[in-house]
Amino acid sequence: MALLILPAMSGCIFDGDGDDGWDPDEFSASDLNAPQVNTDLVPDRPTLPDSSGNTQEVGYSYALEWSFSNNMIYEKYGSTLQLGIENAGDTDIFITEFGFIPSWEDDGYFRDCAVEVPSESTADLGLLSFDGPSRSGDSYYWIQLSMMVKNPKGDWVDMGRLDLDKEDREYVDVEPLLNMETENSVEVNTEQYYDKINSKVSFTDRSVLKTARSAASSYSGEYSIGQVISIFEYIQEEISYVSDPSGEANYWASCDETLEVGAGDCEDQAILFSSMVGAIGGTTRMVLTNDHAFATLYIGDQDHADDVVEALRNYYGTDLNIFYFRDDLGCWLIADTLSFFYLGNLPLGGEPTSATGSGWAWGFPDASELIFIDVIPQ
Asked: Total domain count for the chain?
């Protein structure tokens, strides 16, 4: 799949010294720090076990659970599948590969994996990106596994790719691409939100520093994209989504408060992400729409952004669609912890619109404007 970007947005960097006297601090090139690209981002995988034994000696039982990015499959653009499995049998299984077999593709889409699933346990098998059909409308697909099963003697038996059954196919309504007649308008560092956000962010709060360093410790050394992935996944896994307290609409929590409570809404999680990334040396902006907020991460100029995109695809093990904004200072990776599955995915409310020469255009159909705020704690 092609690299995905939003065309350069005019107005993302501007002189904030307006007629009203509002003159906020804004990013200059010297303020920005792009993450280094790790050479060890591909996760370690278990070695495939040696297989022996007869397939007639084993039985197995499992259930699959999956979802699609944005809960949709779009024409042409496709989607990303996240697949999980429950081993409901009394013997261990080992998944070596899984595939998405749509009616519009003869060969389907496959990816290797190496996930052992003990009896009566569950496991995440990973992500798989795929293209959509040429037209929207009713369609269907299968999900196919390749697996090994442990027999009563303790030997692994290679079952290969499991057969597809017509009764197992799943039906889906493929969505048309969004037709946006007008682009979203853009404002930057507005007085209404600049102070409100930056008063809630802290790079030096003790709880933020401790949590950020602990989350990033899987990737030692200088500030890197691996450390950012770890922070992103920490927030997705450890910080629950909760709406604002009753009677306090649009309450924004500080970063340390969100950590203490272990929960927050979109603004709270974006503030926490920006704080934790800033605590390890990174640079972020927050983006506000009519009904959502999310963070973006500075990833350098186009060449460095290309390296970051490749590293993310290596980490997640599939040819993901990666999204970022671009302006005069460089590229800003989408980092919406409430979006689907992975760092760099479309933010909530964002939808693909059309293929371009360099990827896909996209936008927010339900947002009249986007407000970008430089994260510079006060």
From this structure: 2
Q: Which of 158, 146, 162 is nearest to 54 (CA)?
A: 158
Q: Is the pLDDT of residue 109 over 60?
A: yes
Residue with tokens 């907020």: 293
Q: What is the pLDDT of residues 167-219, one digit of tens each?
A: 889 999 999 998 876 677 899 999 999 999 999 999 999 999 999 999 999 99
Does 131 share its domain with 83? Answer: yes
Q: Encode pLDDT of 280-290 as tens digits.
A: 999 999 999 98
pTM: 0.90
Of 282, 287, 290, which Cα lies nearest the Cα of 232?
Answer: 282
CA distance 233 to 166: 37
Together in a domain, 187 and 104: no
Q: What is the pLDDT of residue 320?
A: 93
CA distances 95 to 107, 113, 115, 259, Å, are 20, 7, 5, 36
Q: Residue 342 sits in which domain range?
A: 179-374
SS3 letters across 126-169: EEEEECCCCCCEEEEEEEEEEEEEECCCCCEEEEEECCCCHHHC
Give the mean pLDDT of 55-75. Answer: 90
Q: Please, what is the average pLDDT of the chain?
A: 89
Same-domain pairing of 259 and 360:
yes
DSSP 78: B
Report the CATH number that the domain containing residue 89 is assigned in CATH.
Answer: 2.60.40.10
Residue 224 and residue 313 share a domain: yes
Q: In angstroms, what CA-CA distances link 212 with 186, 207, 225, 273, 345?
A: 31, 8, 13, 9, 22
Neighbouring C-beta atoms of residue 50, cutoff 10 Å: 9
Boundary-marking domain end, from 174, 205, 220: 174
Is residue 322 located within the same domain as residue 204?
A: yes
Residue 223 lies in a domain: yes
